[in-house]
């Protein structure tokens, strides 16, 4: 494997936020103003409708009809605006506003440490751990799954789990039995929660295949489940482009490696608010872990284990036409639970590969590296390593001679980050996470990890989380 990838020559940053992103940032920063305008529109609409019995006889039938139409339009417009804005410019979430109700059951506990929600799963029985997860987070799973179903399946016309029997059967075959067992427990725990709800809440029905399909979302830029099901190649017009994550690692003279990471993924107005820490505790030889996750998801996107080994993934475009490895999030979890060092993860990648292309940044107390799966000649894995006075940045770049694609070959991000390091003047690394383009409209969590000290700090929001206040996660107790 190569130790170095082709350098990217960049000039000083010249471009600020786009007009659309600037407007989105303003709306995100002023949620009260927007809500007031929406409420005023709704009140006016209802007021016009309510006054019709009194005003119509005086004003006449024609004007009355016009007022009725105006009232209906105002009311509908405010409702539509509220929903559309939540999707396009997700509402700000203040972590001081707790969305979870603390509770406990066999196998787990959901509680707050300060303003950080923590789901603690303390059973080595994967089914029991999964069932605790599904039961304790039932309400959040219900809301998130309904929103995802609306946006991805209903509006975006992506295939539902019921339309992908062959694809999901292959996924069942390839993932470790303990992860499948945990998903089975999660579905049963959620269904137990749903049976305890009043009928008017209409909880979503959840199946194992529904949960499996969610775990393919991080792979959706290179693996197209609908095309795999029909054994068709992906047309260029079907390839998706999306903003994606930033991972930056540098070494501090006192604290060792510092790992700063922004997670970019559409929140659909909810996922940032329902993000939480999942703490897995083991006594069977697997490593204890703390991970940033969302209810209903058993994979790992960002996390640290009890040896300080820290990792985070960035999605990557590509073309995967066969299922011969685990989905990325489950592969990451296997690395975190089974390995103690970055070197062990590197050895793990030589024996087992994930489903398809993505970037995995890893840091322990001694070294840091970014592994780029299936991006070398002959679909080999490339590795870039941290070097003295050369911070390691992974910005979803396409590391090749392809034309500039500003969301994966992130010229703007790299420009701002390079400028940050050129003029750092003692500023902490996490300040880079709030830079333009690094912090954007789908940045849903901000994380800082230190493998040597065990520092783990998070900020959750539905958008622009890269500027949000960091909160400490007590890894000394959890790990």
Please, could you describe this protein's structure?
- The chain is an alpha+beta fold and 479 residues long.
- It has a domain of 69 residues.
- The protein is 37% helix and 18% strand.
- The strands form two sheets. It has a ten-stranded mixed beta sheet, covered by helices on one side.
- Strand 1 and strand 2 form a beta hairpin.
- The longest helix has 29 residues.
- It starts with 18 loop residues before the first helix and ends with a helix.
- The N terminus is likely disordered.
The largest beta-sheet arranges its strands as 1-2-3-6-7-8-9-10-11-12
Number of strands: 16
* Mean pLDDT reading: 83
Query: Which class do the helix and strand fractions yield?
Result: alpha+beta
Quaternary form: single chain
Quick rundown:
This protein has 479 residues and is an alpha+beta fold.
Q: How is this fold's topology laid out?
A:
Elements: H1 19-29, H2 31-59, H3 61-88, E1 103-105, E2 108-113, E3 116-121, H4 126-136, H5 138-155, H6 165-174, H7 177-195, H8 208-214, H9 225-230, E4 246-252, E5 256-264, E6 276-280, E7 289-293, E8 302-305, E9 310-315, H10 328-338, H11 342-351, E10 358-363, E11 368-372, E12 382-385, E13 392-394, H12 411-422, E14 443-450, E15 455-460, E16 471-472, H13 475-478
Parallel strand pairs: 3-6
Antiparallel strand pairs: 1-2, 2-3, 4-5, 4-13, 5-14, 6-7, 7-8, 8-9, 9-10, 10-11, 11-12, 14-15, 15-16
């Amino acid at each position: 494997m190569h130790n170095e990838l082709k350098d990217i020559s960049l000039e000083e940053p010249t471009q600020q936020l786009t007009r659309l992103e600037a407007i989105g940032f303003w709306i995100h920063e002023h949620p009260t103003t927007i809500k007031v305008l929406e409420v005023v529109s709704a009140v006016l609409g209802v007021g016009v409708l309510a006054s019709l019995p009194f005003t119509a006889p005086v004003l006449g039938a024609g004007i009355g009809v016009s007022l009725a139409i105006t009232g209906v339009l105002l009311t509908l417009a405010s409702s539509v605006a509220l929903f559309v804005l939540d999707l396009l410019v997700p509402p700000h979430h203040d972590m001081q506003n707790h969305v979870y109700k603390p509770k406990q059951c066999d196998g787990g506990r959901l509680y707050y440490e300060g303003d950080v929600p923590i789901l603690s799963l303390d059973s080595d029985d994967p089914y029991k751990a999964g069932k605790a997860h599904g039961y304790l987070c039932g309400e959040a799973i219900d809301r998130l799954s309904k929103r995802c179903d609306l946006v991805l399946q209903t509006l975006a016309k992506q295939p539902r789990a019921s339309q992908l029997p062959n694809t999901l059967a292959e996924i069942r075959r390839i993932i470790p039995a303990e992860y499948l067992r945990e998903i089975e427990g999660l579905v049963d725990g959620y269904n137990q929660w749903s049976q305890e709800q009043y009928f008017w809440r209409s909880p979503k029905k959840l199946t194992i295949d529904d949960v499996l399909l969610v775990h393919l979302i991080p792979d959706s830029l290179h693996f197209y489940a609908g095309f795999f099901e029909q054994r068709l190649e992906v047309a260029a017009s079907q390839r998706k482009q999306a903003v994606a994550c930033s991972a930056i690692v540098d070494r501090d003279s006192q604290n060792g490696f510092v790992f700063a990471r922004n997670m970019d993924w559409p929140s659909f107005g909810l996922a940032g608010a329902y993000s939480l820490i999942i703490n897995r505790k083991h006594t069977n030889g697997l490593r204890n872990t703390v991970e940033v996750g969302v209810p209903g998801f058993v994979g790992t996107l960002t996390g640290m284990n009890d040896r300080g080994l820290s990792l985070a993934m960035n999605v990557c475009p590509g073309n995967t036409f066969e299922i011969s490895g685990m989905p990325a999030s489950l592969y990451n979890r296997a690395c975190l639970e089974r390995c103690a060092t970055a070197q062990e993860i590197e050895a793990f990648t030589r024996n087992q590969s994930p489903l398809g292309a993505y970037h995995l940044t890893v840091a322990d107390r001694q070294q840091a590296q970014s592994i780029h799966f299936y991006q070398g000649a002959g679909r080999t894995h490339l590795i870039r390593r941290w070097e003295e006075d050369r911070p390691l940045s992974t910005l979803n770049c396409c590391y090749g001679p392809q034309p500039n694609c500003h969301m994966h070959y992130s010229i703007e991000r790299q420009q701002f980050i390079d400028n940050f390091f050129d003029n750092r003047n003692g500023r902490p690394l996490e300040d880079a996470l709030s830079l333009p383009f690094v912090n954007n409209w789908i940045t849903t969590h901000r994380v800082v990890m230190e493998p040597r000290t065990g520092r783990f700090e998070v900020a959750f929001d539905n958008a622009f989380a890269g500027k949000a206040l960091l909160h400490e996660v007590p890894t000394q107790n959890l790990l």
